[in-house]
């Protein structure tokens, strides 16, 4: 029995040695395969987290549908994070740009440190790139600012986005959920942000629930 457990431990050690971690901290700046634009469903985040924090985003009338969570450099397997020496706080000019794209400064600073520092771009250019990616994605009309809670299948949400964004397919995005509610849609872009592209690992992370709740905008 002891020898059997030893063999299992040895094989597990070999497996761990060759497995690639999903997060590659301190990776080289600018070396990645594609981008993911993450759009967060604001009402879900506010219900589960933001309202307790007193987030401005969650104040009445400020809780829209999708908001930008971030623009993330990705590998085909895994992603770089906290890259190089340029993880310092963005300049005032960069933060002014970020405020037009992301819902608050705290999120903007975190996104820059964790993801933007891996893009190979300076902070202001990274937030410009985030804005450019966002303008390339059209939100389906039924998901712009629904006034009532609805139930939808994750696949139907993907189809709705594909219908209004030429060139976008289900294997180029994922819908995530949290506690039975719509959390995010993540859309994969080419590294030059000129078009959508397939992304197997991102697509595999899609929510597996048959239906999820889409909380109303507030």
Task: Outline the structure in words.
The N terminus is likely disordered. Helix content is 34%, strand content 21%. By secondary structure, it is of the alpha+beta class. It has a single domain, classed as Ribonuclease Rh, Chain A (Alpha-Beta Complex). The radius of gyration is 19 Å and the shape is globular. It has a four-stranded antiparallel sheet with strand order 3-2-7-6. It has a two-stranded parallel sheet with strand order 1-4. The protein has a two-stranded antiparallel ribbon with strand order 5-8. Helix 3 runs parallel beside helix 5. The longest helix is centred in the first third of the chain and has 17 residues.
């Amino acid at each position: 029995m002891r020898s059997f457990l030893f063999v299992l431990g040895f094989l597990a050690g070999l497996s761990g040695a060759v497995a690639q971690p999903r997060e590659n901290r301190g990776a080289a700046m600018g070396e990645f395969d594609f981008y993911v634009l993450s759009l967060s469903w604001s009402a879900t985040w506010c219900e589960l987290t933001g309202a307790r924090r007193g987030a401005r985003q969650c104040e009445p009338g400020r809780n829209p549908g999708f908001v930008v969570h971030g623009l993330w450099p990705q590998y085909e397997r895994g992603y770089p994070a906290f890259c190089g020496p340029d993880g310092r706080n963005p300049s005032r000019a960069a933060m002014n740009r970020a405020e037009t794209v992301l819902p608050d400064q705290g999120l903007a600073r975190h996104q820059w440190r964790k993801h933007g520092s891996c893009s190979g771009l300076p902070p202001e250019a990274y937030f410009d790139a985030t804005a450019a990616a966002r303008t390339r994605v059209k939100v389906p009309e039924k998901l712009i600012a629904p006034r009532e809670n609805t139930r939808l299948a994750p696949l139907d949400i993907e189809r709705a986005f594909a219908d209004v964004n030429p060139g976008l397919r289900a294997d180029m995005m994922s819908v995530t959920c949290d506690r039975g509610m719509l959390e995010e849609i993540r859309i994969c872009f080419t590294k030059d942000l000129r078009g959508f592209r397939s992304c197997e690992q991102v697509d595999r992370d899609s929510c597996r629930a048959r239906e999820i709740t889409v909380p109303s905008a507030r």
